[in-house]
Amino acid sequence: KSQTDLRKYFLHRLFLFDILVFLPIPQVVMLCMLLDVRAMKSLKTLQILNIFIFFQYWPRVFQIYLPRKDLGSNHEILGGRPWVLGPLDFFLYIIAGHVLGAFWYCFSIQRTVACWYMACENHGGCVRNSFYYCNHNFGYHSVLDDFCPKNMTNAELFDFGVYLDAHQSYILESKNIPQKIFYCFCWGMRNLSSFGSNLRTSNDVWENCFVLCVTIFGLLLFLYYMGNFQIYLQRRITSKSKAEAAKRKEKNIKLWIENKKLQTETSDEITKIMEKKFHEEEDIYVEILISELPSQLQSDVKNQICFDPLQRG
């Protein structure tokens, strides 16, 4: 490609794509929401944030997938060590579990806020966005505790669904950041590996969509890794069979050289050429060995095979 083509390629594809991934759009939107929480009169404001997170998350997944695809198709980059892809795929699986746990934590907060909104609707005189302020003179905190208790037993009052664990474990209120990270990571890995089969959902549409994504994503990852593992085994078997075939051919060629009683210098040259061709994975057969040699070496071999015995005779 010319320099102009390369410049257009990087400007229109890679560069703009990297900018889209790099921009902290969800963080900026969240900051704007926190600066003006009084404007959050409904859950739709929070759900808008989910759209920004979703549309920035998938480009990042695609950006991780492209280098992994190049590594899988180009064996020279790995230097003959295809097993490197195994730990890399496992690391990607770990990242997927971490991201899934982060989404679960984010949606758990939104589900808790939804419970607060419902409690506020059922209590007269309640201002919806007043419970965002810890120092606000709000006498309805007891209403929130009664309507959204930790030991929720009545699902008809409010069903937290898959977010009940986050509500009861106090992980949302905890200020211990490592505890939050590992708890959510553990939740993500457990449900990703089980395809979300143990999750009990409520009748909330977005919650069911999230669980469906967990199931589908876990199944796709499982099929992806199983397919890569089968490809790796097939390559190992093919490589082993090629190596064994090359050894047999090399042995036959050495026996042919010994039977023809070629000179040491000539046999060494033939051996070097054959080793080079074996390394390049070219097919070599004893029957056409002479035709595979350089012209000068062919003449030397023919002379030693045909004329030297006559001279000795």
Automatic annotation (TrEMBL):
A biological process from GO: monoatomic ion transmembrane transport
GO cellular component: membrane
Transmembrane segments: 14-35, 90-107, 205-226
Domain of life: Eukaryota
Record keywords, A-Z: Ion channel, Ion transport, Membrane, Transmembrane, Transmembrane helix, Transport
Coiled-coil segments on the chain, per record: none
Name of the molecule in the record: Ion transport domain-containing protein
